[in-house]
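Schema walkthrough. Field components (list of strings):
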Amino acid sequence: MDNDKKTTVLTLTDEEIVNPGNRACSGCGLGIVYRTALKALGKDTVLAVPPSCLTVLQGLYPVASTKLPCVNVTFASTAAAATGVRAALRATGRDHLNVVAFAGDGGTGDIGIQALSGACERGEDIIYICYDNEAYMNTGVQRSGTTPKGVMTTTTPIKGKLQHKKDVPSIIAAHGIDYVATASAAYPLDLYDKVKKAASMKGGTRYIHVHTPCPSGWGFAPQYTVHIGKLGVTTGLFDLYEIVKGEFSLTGESAKRVGKERTPVEEYFKTQRRFRSLSQELTDEMQGMIDAKWANYTA
Amino acid sequence: MHVIESGNVAAATGVKLARVQVIAAYPITPQTPLTEKLSEFVESDELSAEYIPVESEHSAMAVCIASSTTGARSFTATSANGLLYMNEQLHWAAGARLPIVMCVANRGVGAPWTVWNDHQDTVSQRDLGWIQLYCSDHQQIHDTVLKAFKLAETVSIPVMVCYDGYLLSHTYMPFDVPEQAQVDAFLPPFKPTHFLNPEEPRNFNTVTLPDVRPDLHGNTAPGYMEIRKTLHSDLRAALTEIEKIDGEFGEAFGRGGDPFVEPYRCEDADYVAFCMGSLSYQLRDVVDAMREEGTKIGVIGLKVYRPFPDAAVRDALTAHKGVIVFEKALSYGNQGALYADVKSALYSAETRPFVHNYIVGLGGREIKTHHLYDALTESIKNEAAIGDEPQWVGLKL
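Field assembly_structure (string):
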C-alpha cells in the first residue's frame, strides 16, 4: 500500500453515511470503524449484518442510523447472506454495487466461520469486515474465540480465559482469497484506504479484520479508545498488514516499527481492567510470543 | 409435452419454467437429484439463473433470504435433517415475508438415521408461518411448483412444496410439461415493492420493540406483535388466494380443481380415510376393494396443510359417519398433528363423525395395502373401542 496514494485528514471525504447520535456506547471503537468504512464504501453499497453491537448502533425499528440498504440476518449466516445479495444483484442487473458483510468477532470467527469459509472457498464477490472487540460485547462480555488469553469476561470470571486468541485473518488467508487485511479503529485512515482498496478489487472475496477497542467490555474510560487501540499496534500485539493475492506486507504504524523498538505489551495490559488478573508469567509469555512473531518481520 | 421422469425432475422442470433467478442448495437424500438437475439446467444455459452450491442448508436458506430481499425469485430444496438445520432461517424467511419457494422431498428424521420417507420433517415445521402444500403424484409436483411461486409472490409468504421421498422423488411417472410461453403468461416476473436498493435505503428485519413506536414523521409503526398478527392474518387470507390461483391455473393449463382436499368416491361414503401425500392414491385401491365388499368408503387427500383449510376440511367430513386419519408423523407424546387439526376443524360442526388416528410408514416402513385394509376394517368395526390414542400400522414387534 506504500506505493498507493494514502488518504490524509485533508483529503478524506466529508460525506457521512452513518448519522451522528446513533445508539453506540460512548467511546465505541465500532463507531469509528463503521463510520470510516462506510465513508470509503460510498452510497453504492448493500450491507448484510448479523446480530451484534452493530444491530444496536443501526437503530430500532422504525428508525435507522445508516443511509444504506441493509438486511439483518441470523447470527451464523452473514457471509451466506452476502452471497445471496450478490447473486440477486447479478440476476437483476445491478452487479456494480458493493456487497458488504459487517460482523463482530463472535459472528465471524465462532458461529459464522462455516458460512464465511464457504463463501471464501467459492470466491464470492463480497467484502467481509469483521470488527473484533474480542468478546461477545452485545450480550454482556462473554468470552469468544478471539478473546486473548488471560482476559476476564463474564464467562471466564475467576481464572480468566485459558486459551490464546484465535487467529481469524490467517484462517481466512488460508482460503487463498484475493485480499486479506487487518486494521485498527485507532488508525482510521489506514482502515479507510484498505476498504477503498478492497472495494476496487471487485470480483473475489475480500476480508478486513479490524481491532476494535470497547470501553465497557475492556474496562477503560471512553476517552482512551484511540490511545489503547494505538498501544495494541505499537506493542506489536495486533499488527496492521495486507495480503494481496498471497503477498504479505505490513502497513502503516506496524510497517514503521520493523527493526525499531516496540512498546512493552505490559503497557497495553495495564490500561484495561479485563487484564487485571494477568500473572507476570503470562505477561512474559505474551511478550515472548510477540517478540518471536516480530523476529520474522523484515523491512 | 408429455414426459416420463422422476418426481425430483418434475419439480426441477417446474422450477426451470418458473424462470427462477437464484438457486442455493446443499445435497441431501432424497432431494439431491432435483438440485443436480437444476445445476445441469444452469450449466447448460437452459436456465439463466445463479446457482450457489452452499456449504450447508442453513446457508442455502440464508442465500435465499438475502436474494429474495434483494429482489430475485429464489428457490432451494432439501429433506429431513437439512430442513431442520434450516429451522431458524425458516422462521426468519416467514417473518421477513419473503416469497421463497422450497421443495421438500419428505424423509424421516434421525436419530436413529433413516433416509426413507415419512412426514415428520415438514409436519414438525408446521408452525413457522410458511405455507405447506403436499403432492400426490408427479403432475401435482410439477404444477404445484408453478402455483407456489405465484402464491408466494401474491401473499409475500414462503411456500414449501412437499412430496414423498423415494415414493415420488425417485419413481418415474408420465406428466405434462407446458410451454414456456404458457407459464410466462401465468407467472409474471417477480416485482417486489421493497427490496435492497441504495436509491431507497431501508434497514430490513431490524430490532423491533414490544410496543408500537412512532417513526420520524410521527406515524405509528407496528411493534413485533402487530407484525406477527399480520403474518397470521395474511396466512389465513392466503386460503382465498390458493383457491383463486388454482382456478387460474385450471383455466391456463386445464388441470386443477380441489385446491384444498382431493376426494375419491366420497359422495355417498359412510367412512372416509384422510391423509396427505402419495398415500391417498394407495388408499384408493383399498377403497375400491372395500366398495366391492359393500363398505361405503372413500378417501380424501389433503393438499394444503398450512394454512389449515379448516372450513374445507369440515365441509368435506361432516356428512360422514367416521373419518380415519392416516399419518406418517406424530406429535410425540400427544397424537398425530394432522389428527388433532382434523378434530379441531370438526369441533364446530353440528354433526361430527368419529375420528380415529393411524400412524403408518415411519422411516419408510413399507405400507402394505392389506395393512391399510385391516386398519380401516378395524376402525369401522370397533368404533367405540378405539379411543384417541394413535393406532400403529405395520409394527412387527
